[in-house]
Amino acid sequence: MKTPVSYLQTPLTQNIAVALAYLLTAKLGFLLVLEQTNATAVWPPTGIALAACLIFGAQIWPGVFLGAFLANILLLAPTPFSSMSALLVSCSTASGNTLEALVGGYLVKRFISGELPFDRTQDTFRFILLGALASPVISATIGTVSFSIYGDDWSRCGQMWLTWWLGDAVGALIFAPLLLTWEKRNVFQWDTRKATEAVILLAILFLVEAIVFRQNYPLEYLIFPVLFWTAFRFGQFETVAMLSLVMVTFLAWTVKGLGPFSGKSLNNSLLFLQSYLGVASASTLLLSTLISARNRAEDLLREYQENLEELIGARTMELMCTLDQLAVAKEHAEVADQLKSAFLATMSHELRTPLNSIIGFTGILLQKLSGPINEEQEKQLNMVRSSANHLLSLISDILDISKIEAGQLTVASEPFRLNESIRKVVQAVRPLAEKKGLELTVEQSDEVGMLTGDARRVEQILLNLLSNAVKFTEHGTVSVISERDAGEYRITVRDTGIGISSNDVEKLFMPFRQIDSGLSRKYEGTGLGLSICKRLVDLIGGRLHVESTLGEGSLFSFSIPIERG
């Protein structure tokens, strides 16, 4: 932080400057000194020394000691003290002044959060308590004892100590902040309105002093609104400068014997004035720091709000651009999805024709209509037909899912017998169940009969569910149960197969997804069967339900409305 002495770069020049400042301000303090002592109503060098220790650190102690020593020598030279006594008293008093500044500077720096006080209310309070009230006890005690010993007079010891301590405290409260807030001055940035307000404030100050001191009205606390107005409307430096002006003018009035502080003796008057100035300085400093912190917070909040508005505007523009991009991407995705579905439907149709030819010609060869074939040839042809049938099933599934996604799959609405469709599907799957040694049972209610809907799609759903049950059951039973429930039929396929974990149930109806996935999977399939079933059930206006326990088996059921609306 820059101060009036911040241009002093070397320790020597710093110490010389502090010694000179201490000596010059001491001359002012000695104008109000207690007789036969160096205890004074206001001791500005205390503020100078404390500010120097806070700015330069402990290395400044020689300058403080030299300035204090010379000041005391100049004061005691014309007194009845002998040369040796004056030298010893000056040396001990200077030691007390130096120790006071060092201890005060150390305590303040030790307990404040920043580099210097007056930025936070807590730090200002610690400065007042430690720098202005606690550390002057050292100087007052050492100085009072020294003068009492060498003057051999202890009669005024208490009054001397109190005057000394209050004088140092007021000096620290006014002159140290004056230096430490130098960089916060705004006087050169005032406009006409601000300067006019300052002139009005000074006029009110002199009016209050005229009322209090000239008219001798006991209204000395009228000065507090003036000080608080300064704290609210001006900066910290201007507030401390106003405190200095109040101190000087109040001292001048009181020395003349005017005002509420004048009493039987000047010493008693100055003691009252010291107390008053100490309270006024401490309270005004705290208020000024609080207001300064509030103003900084408001500036930061205002800056944050401005930045926030800019940030919101920028983010809004980015969001709008992103939404536009998403809308375009969605449109492209929908077009691409329709093209994909149309492509798959076309390719599936084109692939089914040659596959049907392969299956048909393979059947002719296996029937030996074109001539005899040997056992190995028959085995190979069976493998070709099986692979062709598997591929045809895959292509049919892809064609169905593509049509469903493209919205091209239509559902018929014709009357048919549901029990006959169930019997037809069961007969088609029974050879597969018998080949695996499974028991395939059918339980049909007598109430299951005619139905208006799409027989082919109902049979396709049941065939997929029943085929899956046989595929994933190694031993036990596969059951088909049909029953009527109010205005719908419900068909249930129950098995004792491998079952499904609760975490995998939600994946069942996702296309191209299988629970048994990976390179080492045991069961074949495309992962489209259950997805097609779910969508077909939705198309016919029904519901698909699943219950399964891992290792115990599964239950798939779907409902069909008897009459479609």
Strand sequence of the main sheet, in spatial order? 2-4-5-7-6
N→C terminal distance: 86 Å
- Helix amount: 55-70%
Overall average pLDDT = 82
Helix-strand sequence: HHHHHHHHHHHHEHEEHEEHEE
Principal-axes geometry comes out as rod-shaped
Strand tally is 7
Cα-atom radius of gyration = 51 Å
Please count the helical segments.
15
Percent strand equals: 5-15%
How would you describe this structure to a colleague?
Helix 1 packs parallel to helix 3 (61-76), helix 7 (157-180) crosses helix 11 and helix 14 packs antiparallel against helix 15. The chain has helices at 11-29, 44-56, 61-76, 83-111, 121-134, 136-151, 157-180, 192-214, 223-233, 236-255, 266-366, 375-406, 418-435, 455-471, 529-539; strands at 414-417, 439-444, 450-453, 477-485, 488-495, 544-549, 553-561. It has a 5-stranded mixed beta sheet with strand order 2-4-5-7-6. Strands 1-3 form a two-stranded antiparallel ribbon. Residues 517-521 have low confidence and may be disordered. The longest helix is centred in the middle third of the chain and has 101 residues, at 266-366. The relative contact order is 0.06. With 565 residues, it is an alpha+beta fold. The radius of gyration is 51 Å and the shape is rod-shaped. The two termini are 86 Å apart. It contains 15 helices and 7 strands.
